[in-house]
Design a protein that fits this description.
Length: 225
C-alpha cells in the first residue's frame, strides 16, 4: 500500500480533483435544469407541468450508464449519420451532460418540494400587494424555499460525486478509472481499492458534516423566527 501511495499517490489525487471538477460542473448545470423544470412543475399551466413531469420520469427511469453511453456514442452517431452534422464529444463534455441531466431530474424534485413547502399564503400576500407572479416568486417564495433546499442540494452533490464513478465506462480519467489503471500496472487490487475507498470516504464525510451543520443552523434560524 505504501508503494502505491508513493508511486501513484499524486496520480490518484489528480484523479480525485478531476472527479470533484466533473461533479461540480454537473451540479452547476443540474441546478439550472432543476430550477427550470422545478418552476415549471409548480405553474398553473398544465402543459408546463406535464413537460416537467415527463423530463423527471424519463431521466430518472433510465440507468445512468445507459444515459452515458447514449450521450457519448449515440448522440454524435445520430448527428453525424442522420443529420449530417459532424460533432464529437469529449469524455468531460459527455460526462458533464450526463450528470447534469441525471442530477437535474432530482434537483427539479428538490426545488418543487422546496417551493411547495412555503405556505401558499405567502404568494397570496405578495400578489395582494401588487407584485407580479414571477417577482413574488423571486423575492418572496424562493428565498424561503432555498433555506429548506440547501441540505438536500448538498446531499444530491454527494450522490452526484459517487455517480461519477459510472463515467469510467466512457474513459473519463476520474478516480475509479485511474484506479483501474493502477491495478493493471501493479496487480495490487486489494490495496488500491482500499485507498480509493478511503479517498471517497474522506471527501464524502466532510460534505456530509457540512450538510448536517447547515441543516442545524437553518433549523435554529427557523425556530427563532
Amino acid at each position: 500500500m505504501v508503494r502505491i501511495i508513493n508511486t501513484y499517490g499524486s496520480l490518484l489525487l489528480t484523479a480525485m480533483g478531476q472527479t470533484l471538477l466533473l461533479a461540480l460542473w454537473g451540479l452547476f448545470f443540474a441546478c439550472i435544469l432543476g430550477m427550470i423544470f422545478g418552476l415549471m412543475s409548480v405553474l398553473k399551466n398544465r402543459v408546463c407541468r406535464v413537460i416537467a413531469q415527463i423530463f423527471v420520469d424519463v431521466i430518472r427511469g433510465v440507468p445512468m450508464i445507459v444515459l452515458a453511453y447514449f450521450i457519448y456514442f449515440g448522440v454524435p452517431y445520430g448527428l453525424n449519420n442522420l443529420l449530417h452534422f459532424s460533432v464529437t464529444l469529449s469524455a468531460l463534455q459527455a460526462g458533464t451532460i450526463c450528470l447534469a441531466l441525471n442530477c437535474g431530474a432530482y434537483m427539479a424534485e428538490i426545488i418543487r418540494a422546496g417551493i411547495q413547502s412555503v405556505d401558499k399564503g405567502q404568494m397570496e400576500a405578495a400578489r395582494s400587494l401588487g407584485l407580479p407572479y414571477w417577482r413574488a416568486m423571486q423575492r418572496v417564495i424562493l428565498p424561503q424555499a432555498i433555506r429548506t433546499m440547501i441540505p438536500s442540494i448538498i446531499n444530491q452533490f454527494i450522490i452526484t460525486l459517487k455517480d461519477t464513478s459510472i463515467l469510467s465506462v466512457i474513459g473519463f480519467p476520474e478516480l475509479v478509472n485511474t484506479a483501474k489503471n493502477v491495478v493493471a500496472n501493479t496487480f495490487m487490487s486489494f490495496q488500491t481499492w482500499i485507498i480509493v475507498g478511503v479517498m471517497y470516504l474522506f471527501v464524502i464525510t466532510i460534505l456530509s458534516r457540512v450538510a448536517k451543520i447547515l441543516e442545524r443552523r437553518l433549523n435554529r434560524g427557523n425556530a427563532q423566527i
